[in-house]
Amino acid sequence: MTTTTPSYVGSALDRVEGLDKVTGRARYAAEHSPRDLAYAVPVQATVARGEIRSVDVDAVLKYPGVIAAIWYGNAPRLAPADDAELAVLQSRRVAYRGQYVAVVVAETLQGAREAAGLVRVEYAVEPHDVELRADHPGLYRPDHVNPAFPTDTEQGDPDAALAAAPIVLEATYSTPAEHNNPMEPHATVAVWDGDGLTLHDSTQGAPAVRDTVASLFGMPPANVRVISPHVGGGFGSKGAPHPHVILAALAAKQTGRPVKLTVTRQQMFAVTGYRTPTIQRVRLGADTDGRLTAIVHEAFEQSSTIREFAEQTTVPTRMMYAAPGRRTSHRLVRLDVPTPAWMRAPGETPGMFALESAMDELAIACGLDPVELRIRNEPEIDPESGLPFSSRNLVACLREGARRFGWAGRDPAPRIRRRGRLLVGTGVAASTYPVYRSPSRASARAEPDGRFTVRIAATDIGTGARTVLTQIAADALRTSADRVRVEIGDSALPTASLAGGSMGTASWGTAVVRACEALREELDRRGGDPAGGVEADADTTEEINGQRRLARHAFGAQFAEVGVDADTGETRVLRLLGVFAAGRIVNPKTARSQFVGGMTMGLSMALLEESVMDREFGDYLNHDFAQYHIAACADVRDVEAFWIEEDDPHLNPMGSKGIGEIGIVGTAAAVANAVHHATGVRIRDLPIRLDKLVG
C-alpha cells in the first residue's frame, strides 16, 4: 500500500460526481422508467376536516388508458402505523385539506392527470380550526420535543430575578409557516417483484424508508430495497417518508405494474412537511453591566390532529448564555392542518431569531454594543446540563466577524445613515447547532487492481457527501483519492443514519474510517496482497454509545448590512458575513457552499418566506413559486463565509462538526437587527415586508 500520500481531509477537492451532474448522467428518482411503467396521480381532499361519504370513479374507469382508481374502499390494507400520516387510503376520515383521498393509475401521466380530475368525492364537512394562537384553549404540554429533549426546563428563580433586575426586556416574536421547497420535488418509482419491492425514491435516508415501508406492508426489511444515489436537495423535507411513498407502493401492488408518482410543487405544500409557525415570548433580566440574571423563553407551536410533531424551539436558549435564573417551555396545539416536520435547523432557526433579536434589544436598553453584550454573557460550561463544552469558540467568531465586517466604531443610533434613497444599518446575531453522531456501518474492500471500494448507505442531498467520504477514506487508507470509489444511496449497502441534523459526515465518516482501518490491518496481516479482493467492515454503535458526555456544539456569528428605501420600505441585504467554529473543515469548497447556502436561506426567511393560511378553507394560499417567495440572485448581493481553526479532539476521527444547518440559524435575526439599526423600526414578526416599514 502507498504510505506517502497527500492529506485529502482539509483540501478543496472537486466533487467526484460533478461531471455526472452537469452532463445529465446523474439520474434522480423520477428519471427511472422501468418496463411497463404506469403513472399515478393523487386526488387530494378539498375540505379541511370531515368524513368521506362516497367516492364515484365510474367516469374515471371509462377514461382511455386508466388502469385503476384506488380509494379507501378498495385499497390494499396496511399494517397499523406509528405515524398515522402514512395510513394512506385506510380510512374515511379527512384530517386536513390536501390529504390524499384517492389515486388514479394510468398508462400516461397526462391520462392519469385528466382522469384524476374526474374523481367525485362527497364529504360530510365538519368545522375546522387552523389558526395558531398563544391563547388557544387547546394548547398543551407535549411529553418531549424533537427529537427527545425535555419539553420544559427551569433553574433558579427566574421570576424573582426578573422582578429584581434593573433592566428587563420583554417581547413577543413570531415566525410564519415555511415550506422547504428543494429544487428536486419529491418522487417515487415503485416496482414489485413477487414478494420484493424496489423503490427509487428522493430521500435523505434510504434505510429509514426501507424500514418504514417494510413495516407498513408486513414485509421483512430485506425484501425492500430503496435506491437514491442522487437527491436534489431536501432541507429536512426528505428526512422521513411521506404519504406519496406509501401511495406509490400501494398503487404498484394493486395494479401489478411499476408505478411512478411525482409530487407537484403545489402538492408539496400539503403533503411533504413544513416548518411550524411559532409565537415566542422572551423575557431577559440584566444588571446595569449587561450581565444576564434571568432568561425566560416560551414557544407556542402547532401540529396536526393525526400526528404530534413538536419543534425544539427554545432548546438552543438553554445553552447559549449564562444566567442564574432560567426557564424554557414549549406548548403545542393540534389543528386541522398538515403535520409539520423538519426544515433546515428545526428549533434553532426560529428559536434563535427570537433570542438573538431580544439580545439586540437588550443591548440597546443596556447601552452596550451588541457584540460586547454577547461576550459578557459567555458561559464557561453548559449552563443547564453543567457539562463542559468539547470546544466553544463563539467569542472568537464574534471578534473575527467584527474585524472582517468593519464593526469597530459602529454608531448605535438608528436611522441616521443614508446612502441616496436608502437608510443603511448593520446588525449581528450569534448562531449555534448541536454536534451529533449516529451509529452507522461501512465496508471497505481492496480490489485486485489496487483500487478500493467503500460502501455505506449514506445519502448525498447536494452537500458533497460522496466527495468528503472519498477524502476521508483516502486518508484512512493512505492512498490517493482517485483510487477510491465510494458507493452510497442504496439501502442494500451497510446501514447508515440519514442525511440530517448536520450529522451525516460525522456519523458516516466515523464508520468509513473504522472500516478502512480494519482493512489496512487485514492487508498488513496478508503482507499487503489484495489478491482475490480483501474486505473489512465496521459498526460504530459501541463507539458512539460509549463516548464521553460533553456539550458538543458548533457556533457562529453573522453580520448583516441592509439598505431600506426610505419611501417604499423595500429592504435589500447589501452584505452578509458569517464566521463559524465548526471543528476541522473537511473540504473548504463544499463547506463554503453550505455556509453561504444556509445564510442565503436565512436571508430568504428574514425578508420573503411566508406560507399564508386561509382560515376559511384551511389551506395555504400561496402554494407555488409565483406566490411563495424565496431569495433569488438579485436578493443575494454579497455573502461571505469564513471559519476559524478549531481543534476539538472529542468529536470523531476527522475532528469535524456539522455545517449544513448552522448557516441559517442566526441570519434572520442579524438582518432584522440591521433593519432596526437602519430604520428605528423593530420588526418582531417575520417576514420583514415593506408594509411593516412604511409610514
Automatic annotation (TrEMBL):
Descriptive protein name: Xanthine dehydrogenase YagR molybdenum-binding subunit
SMART domains: Ald_Xan_dh_C
Gene3D superfamilies attached to this UniProt entry: Aldehyde oxidase/xanthine dehydrogenase, a/b hammerhead (3.90.1170.50), Aldehyde oxidase/xanthine dehydrogenase, molybdopterin binding domain (3.30.365.10)
Keyword terms, alphabetized: Molybdenum, Oxidoreductase
Ranges for domain Aldehyde oxidase/xanthine dehydrogenase a/b hammerhead: 23-127
Keyword Coiled coil: no
Pfam families (UniProt xref): Ald_Xan_dh_C, MoCoBD_1, MoCoBD_2
Endpoints of the signal sequence: none
EC code: 1.17.1.4
Species annotation: Streptosporangium brasiliense
Keyword Oxidoreductase: yes
Taxon lineage: Bacteria, Bacillati, Actinomycetota, Actinomycetes, Streptosporangiales
InterPro entries per the UniProt record, alphabetical: Ald_Oxase/Xan_DH_a/b, Ald_Oxase/Xan_DH_a/b_sf, Ald_Oxase/xanthine_DH-like, AldOxase/xan_DH_MoCoBD1, AldOxase/xan_DH_MoCoBD2, AldOxase/xan_DH_Mopterin-bd_sf
GO molecular function, one term: xanthine dehydrogenase activity
